[in-house]
Write a structure and sequence with these properties.
six-stranded mixed beta sheet, single chain, alpha+beta, three-stranded antiparallel beta sheet, 213 residues, 24% strand
């Protein structure tokens, strides 16, 4: 029987939360965690959703809801072994359901990669020149700092515990941020009516535990 890393393809982009377990929101400013390094070395582009906005990751939240209603809160289990047996049936049924409602384009066979394809890659590497993915993406909501309408009012976002000022006319709107690790630039964009992106700000952004030499 094939192992999970042999059967499930590696995504090009992985949408994840901002928890420290996912490589963000660490105690120190401008630091990333082990999972972030793992994904960069694997060639997967991380997309961190806006904090406290679970609807940004609807597929995961949808799974959590179905899992709770149809499995965890509905069934009774005698022991852990019974859970292991029943969860396999649930996963098969949910995968069929996901394929039914999915509108994602089918991945071409030649483009599919698995963990087994990266046996010789150092997945703990911290040197930027060896990363297979060179960007990290962040979706953020512009928040207000200070009193509304006051002289000191401005908008801001937070990336890896670092505050960046944003024009106050963008408060409560989403911005899409691209951190280019090789150029050490963070580019902040808004979405226009036609779906294209417009850059509104670019700042130098160096992650302190990444090796740039």
């Amino acid at each position: 029987m094939k192992e999970i890393w042999e059967t499930y393809p590696i995504p090009e982009i992985l949408k994840i939360d901002n928890d420290s377990a996912f490589g963000a929101n660490l105690p120190h400013e401008k630091y990333i965690g082990k999972l972030a390094f793992f994904l960069l070395n694997l060639g997967v582009y991380s997309l961190y959703i806006a904090p406290r906005s679970p609807w940004n990751n609807g597929q995961v939240e949808g799974f959590n809801s179905v899992f709770s209603k149809k499995f965890w809160n509905k069934l009774q289990f005698g022991d852990e072994q019974e859970i292991d047996v029943k969860i396999k049936d649930f996963n098969v049924a949910y995968e069929k359901y996901s394929q039914l409602i999915s509108n994602n384009p089918k991945i071409k066979e030649k483009d599919i990669k698995h963990m087994g394809d990266f046996k010789d890659v150092n997945l703990e590497n911290k040197d930027v020149k060896h990363f297979r993915a060179d960007k990290i993406y962040f979706l953020r909501i512009v928040r207000r700092k200070n009193d509304k309408g006051g002289d000191n009012e401005y908008g801001f976002i937070e990336i890896l515990k670092h505050e960046i000022k944003i024009p106050k006319d963008l408060i409560n709107l989403f911005v899409f941020c691209v951190l280019d690790l090789k150029s050490t630039l963070l580019k902040i964009n808004i979405e226009l009516d036609d779906g294209s992106l417009k850059e509104i700000k670019s700042v130098e952004f160096i992650i302190k535990n990444v090796i740039y030499d």
